[in-house]
Specification:
By secondary structure, this protein is mainly α. The protein has 32 helices and no strands.
Length: 500
């Protein structure tokens, strides 16, 4: 057996959907090399395999499991206090290839990270570096600061105080009177963000890293606003929810169309300015201004802003918003004559089934694309259509449970090899294309359960198809064990064991 075949068989078995737990657990052996790591990271795992990986003595196995987006994160709670800081950091940082649906970590894990006193026994990272990984991973739900504002542990109230703009007025008042001095100090500093005079007194100098954040989020004094206009530093003002009405009116007449676009859909834009922008020479400004009467809250503004600032091939992470518009508002958007508002409705996963059916047939392609990518009830035929026509969305669509596993055979002659790969995996395909010139198509064809036992025997020993054959769910379990005996222990592999 060549080293190449050994690697291909191990990798194929690691992703064989029919491989039972006792087969997969054998791949946790160090002799399985990269195959065990790829398995722990890249596929759904039986409970017994998860348990074995959680308790595995090799840090690399536990670290790979920490990346697994297919495993319920509640099962990964032990890794938040793993002896190795690298394992903890991996869990905090999320999967290596971040999916579009960013799955929030459970509170148990977040609390463990935020109250940790060290970064693990191996001393490879600090607790603060782990928390830094957590912030950048987007795995903290937007509601978490509010949930922690009244927590018994002062470290969690301190965290909430640092997220001042996310808190309710009552929570802010409570933190300002917190019994812990560090929490009170953080709350006092946070409260300055809504104090225009305090912001002016501590305004970062031009070019400072935090200046854009301050100008774009904090309450600003008239003097600071005037200075922004004088220095033509108005872009953050156009995004700032605290920008006063008179400044908004000036921004609506700014010579830069990008500034007018940012202002045009704000819910606090005055009627006179909104009316002027509906006559703007820039088409995009006019379109946004037409939407403005439909936007009455900042949650609605954010939902629309997310759509208008991104095109049909946007693959930005999909995360939980801090606040959501009402279901009635989304239903109104779904029936709107404005395509942008229908795109907004199609992006809401809670849209009722009857409206999903209507939007799945919408004349606007981006409505259909957004529905396919965001809604769990999007029809399978729509998911397949978007997969074929919009390559940017393919990795995401393949993760969706509603994505069709059959009905793809008509695509077997498609010029795009990614589309042929999809067709080659269809279990209803009479003759999987084992001789396709593309490697991925051949792998998918070799893994097709329609391959006969006799053919499976043959393609297992061909490097062009061996990996797919080892991943074929029709491969008998005794044959899987025999291949592993051969790969891990050097035992002989029965030549006809693939036959039923």
């Amino acid at each position: 057996m060549s080293d190449l075949l050994r690697e291909l068989w191990l990798r194929g078995i690691a992703f064989n959907p029919a491989a039972p737990a006792d087969v997969l657990i054998r791949l946790l052996d160090e002799a399985a090399g990269e195959a065990g790591l790829l398995m722990c990271e890249g596929r759904a795992l039986p409970e017994a395999v998860i348990e074995a990986a959680l308790r595995h003595p090799a840090m690399r196995i536990r670290r790979a499991l920490a990346c697994n987006r297919h495993v319920d994160p509640a099962r990964l709670v032990p890794l938040a206090s793993d002896p190795s800081g690298l394992v903890r950091a991996q869990l905090a940082g999320g999967t290596r290839h971040q999916p579009r649906w960013v799955r929030p970590l459970p509170d148990d894990i977040l609390v463990t990270f935020l109250t940790a006193r060290d970064g693990g026994e191996d001393g490879r990272v600090t607790e603060w570096e782990i928390v830094g990984e957590l912030w950048s991973s987007r795995q903290v739900p937007a509601s978490f600061p509010r949930d922690m504002a009244g927590h018994d542990h002062p470290a969690l109230r301190l965290y909430a105080a640092h997220q001042w703009l996310s808190l309710t007025s009552a929570q802010r008042r409570a933190l300002l009177d917190d019994p812990d001095p560090a929490v009170r100090e953080a709350a006092r500093k946070g409260s300055r963000q809504l104090d225009p005079e305090a912001v002016e007194a501590a305004l970062p100098s031009p070019g400072s890293r935090n200046r854009w954040f301050v100008l774009g989020t904090c309450a600003l004094s008239p003097a600071v606003v005037e200075q922004c206009f004088a220095d033509d530093e108005v872009h953050p003002l156009a995004r700032n929810r605290h920008t006063p009405a008179d400044a908004l009116a000036r921004l609506s007449r700014h010579p830069d169309a990008e500034i007018r676009r940012l202002v045009a859909i704000r819910p606090d834009l005055g009627p006179e300015a909104a009316s002027e922008l509906r006559q703007d020479p820039d088409e995009d400004v006019r379109m946004r201004a037409r939407l403005q009467p439909s936007i009455c809250t900042w949650a609605e503004f954010q939902a629309v802003q997310t759509v208008v600032e991104h095109g049909p091939d946007c693959t930005c992470p999909i995360t939980e918003p801090a606040t959501e518009p009402s279901p009635d508002w989304y239903a109104t958007c779904a029936a709107s004559g404005e395509p942008v508002l229908r795109r907004v409705a199609a992006s809401w996963p809670g849209l009722p089934a009857e409206l999903v059916g209507t939007l799945a047939l919408d004349d606007d392609e981006e409505v259909r694309i957004r529905l396919a990518c965001h809604h769990p009830l999007a029809p399978p035929h729509l998911l397949l259509d978007v997969f074929v026509t919009r390559p940017a969305h393919r990795p995401h669509l393949l993760t969706l449970s509603a994505f069709p596993r059959t009905g793809r055979t008509h695509l077997i002659g498609h010029p795009d090899p990614e589309v042929r790969t999809l067709a080659a995996a269809d279990p209803t395909l009479p003759e999987p294309p084992l001789e396709d010139p593309d490697d991925a198509v051949r792998r998918a064809a070799a893994a097709n359960p329609n391959v006969t036992p006799e053919t499976l025997d043959t393609i297992l020993t061909n490097p062009r198809t061996a990996e797919g054959a080892a991943a074929n769910p029709s491969l008998p379990v005794p044959r899987m064990h025999a291949l592993l005996d051969h790969c891990l222990n050097g035992a002989a592999t029965p030549p006809t064991a693939a036959r039923r």
